[in-house]
Amino acid sequence: MDLLDLLLHEHAEIRTWALAPRPWPVQQFEEFNWFVVQCHATQLEDEVLFPLLRSRMAGRDEFLRSLSRIAADHRLLATLAGNTIKYGREGADVYPRRIDDYFKLLQFHNDSEEEMIFTAWNELPAADREDASARAADSARRCASSGPYLRYSGLAERTLGYLGQ
Ligand SMILES: [Fe+2]
Ligand SMILES: [Fe+2]
């Protein structure tokens, strides 16, 4: 399973979580957001895939503009999640609506990545794809050992052994 397989798998899993009845207990939302923002967006996309695409797609201005715009969604999501958690802890009336807003933004963002960014994966040299996949596998294993990554990613412990291969 290479980095693109893992990202697409996690997007599919996020689509399924979005269908789970809401509002969620705050702790569940916090854990899910940790999986989305820390493990998926930060450690796989911001730290591995996006820098690689920026360096290899130099000169592809339209692509790079889309990448910057889409990458900026990660900060927006993190801010929205922070506010949502705060409202949830306070028991505020807006908590359920903020969760809905979070899922709408997340789904729009993931669809944009699949339509405009992930499509460049197969243009990368094989050595780059292998290196990125190995680094992503290390990150995913670190997430699995430090929090409820397996629960939210839907991966089994044994599947971690296939990552990066
Ligand atoms: Fe993302
Ligand atoms: Fe993503």
UniProtKB/TrEMBL annotation:
Pfam families: Hemerythrin (PF01814). Residues 28-120 form the Hemerythrin-like domain. InterPro entries: Hemerythrin-like. Gene3D superfamilies: nmb1532 protein domain like. This is No similarity.
